[in-house]
């Protein structure tokens, strides 16, 4: 039964990652989350790992494999932002965002793919962002790291597509999280005016797309970018 599969969600202790982990738990999957601090939702196994540290990730995977079994579904969600305009952006502002958002995905997926190849089954789901293809002033580092996930998923599909492994990208728009809640009301209004749906998404609306991509029903979809943005980034 597909819902007994083992799922690992990186950065599953808060925000969208937490909502994704909760949804998998609700659907009966065995769920682990990586977190640098804090705990994943109830019913999940939390393992400590920073996605920029390959050795710590390897140890985290080994712990998940021992307690739950081989990871069959990986959701690369862990990400950071260091927003500032290009001319003010430091080397570290750029390098650290790329190392976490893109490098972290590389490390997690590389480690997960070993077990997926043995099982001849795998679901790789990369959490990008509407700004990956739409662009956003002050986010050269973040949007570059998020658009890179598209090339990553498509190359992975060409490498592993014949082994029962799919790789897809989910590109959320504005989501109701602690971060958007802190925006001034006027700013929120402006953002919503640009979104055809006229509202922000709930984290669960993103989670529902992710769990569907993880299911057996979506086995013939790979290399796709699925926007969950209320129509904000259409055509991008």
Quick one: CATH superfamily? NAD(P)-binding Rossmann-like Domain
The overall pLDDT average reads: 95
> What is the strand tally?
7
Distance between the termini: 36 Å
Rg, rounded, reads 17 Å
Q: How does CATH name the architecture?
A: 3-Layer(aba) Sandwich
Helix proportion range: 40-55%
Helical stretch count? 8
What proportion strand?
A: 15-25%
Q: Low-confidence stretches at least 5 residues in length (pLDDT < 50)?
A: none
Sheet with the most strands, sense and barrel status: 7 strands, parallel
N to C succession of SSEs:
EHEEHEHEHHEHHHE
How many domains make up the 3D coordinates?
A: 1
The CATH class name reads: Alpha Beta
* Classification by helices and strands: alpha/beta
According to CATH, the fold-level topology is Rossmann fold
Strand order of the largest sheet: 3-2-1-4-5-6-7
Shape verdict: globular
Q: How would you describe the overall organization of this protein?
A:
It is a single chain. The chain is of the alpha/beta class. The chain has one domain: 3-Layer(aba) Sandwich (Rossmann fold), CATH 3.40.50.720. It has helices at 15-26, 54-67, 91-119, 130-134, 140-160, 178-181, 185-194, 203-214, and strands at residues 6-10, 30-35, 44-48, 73-76, 122-127, 165-172, 225-228. A seven-stranded parallel sheet has the order 3-2-1-4-5-6-7, with helices on both faces. Helix 3 (91-119) links the parallel strand 4 (73-76) and strand 5 (122-127). The radius of gyration is 17 Å and the shape is globular.
């Amino acid at each position: 039964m597909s819902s007994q599969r083992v799922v690992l969600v990186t950065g599953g202790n808060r925000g969208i990652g937490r909502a994704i982990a909760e949804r998998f738990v609700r659907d009966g999957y065995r769920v682990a989350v990586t977190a640098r601090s804090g705990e994943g939702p109830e019913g999940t196994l939390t393992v400590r790992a920073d996605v920029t540290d390959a050795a710590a990730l390897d140890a985290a995977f080994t712990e998940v494999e021992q307690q739950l079994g081989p990871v069959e579904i990986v959701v690369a969600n862990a990400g950071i932002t260091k927003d500032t305009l290009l001319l003010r952006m430091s080397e570290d502002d750029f390098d650290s965002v790329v190392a976490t958002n893109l490098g972290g995905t590389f490390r997690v997926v590389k480690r997960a793919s070993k077990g997926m190849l043995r099982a001849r089954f795998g679901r790789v789901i990369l959490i990008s962002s509407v700004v990956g293809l739409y662009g956003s002033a002050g986010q050269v580092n973040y949007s570059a790291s998020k658009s890179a996930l598209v090339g990553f998923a498509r190359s992975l599909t060409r490498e592993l597509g014949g082994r029962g492994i799919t790789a897809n990208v989910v590109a959320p728009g504005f989501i109701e999280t602690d971060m958007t809640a802190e925006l001034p009301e006027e700013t929120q209004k402006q953002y919503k005016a640009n979104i055809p749906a006229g509202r922000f998404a709930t984290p669960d609306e993103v989670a529902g797309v992710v769990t569907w991509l993880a299911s057996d029903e979506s086995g013939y979809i790979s290399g796709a970018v699925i926007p969950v943005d209320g129509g904000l980034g259409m055509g991008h």
